[in-house]
Amino acid sequence: MSLRIDEMDKKILGELQRDAAQSLDEIAKRVGSSKTPVWNRIRKLREAGVIRQQTVLLDAEALGFEACFFVLIRTSEHEADWQAKFLKALRERPEVLEAHRLAGDIDYILKVQVQNARAYDTFYQALISEVKVHNVTALLSMEEIKSTTMLPL
Q1: Which of 20, 40, 60, 151 is paired with 49 by a 20 to 30 Å CA distance?
Q2: Where in the sequence is the domain holding 18, given as residue range(s)?
Q3: What is the pTM of this model?
Q4: pLDDT at 3
Q5: Three-state SS for 119?
């Protein structure tokens, strides 16, 4: 389903990105519309897949997840069955917040959020026991400077 996104849609999406918990009345007021047209637009954006899900953002450090590692993975395996096994292993691990397949020297990069270095080692040992990788480099984030889920509409 192809949907044309106009300026009003962008305003509504911006408000939802800022705070998806706000009421339809609040969103309508902020974008200069009324409740029913805003609801109809949100419904169409959901149906078109523009809005994938609504969720909450948790403070990892407040919950004891103080270590964020960026894990660079090189593999000498590029067969479909290896990749399926690797992707399954990543999807089954909740500490993997993001995983990207890359162009260039590094094959994959993972963002892994854990309590501490010991928890990272447990993750690492489990991963390499399931899938063969050529090289793994883990980089500990010393400070999060910017993190957002908001797209620049």
Answers
A1: 60
A2: 7-47
A3: 0.89
A4: 87
A5: helix
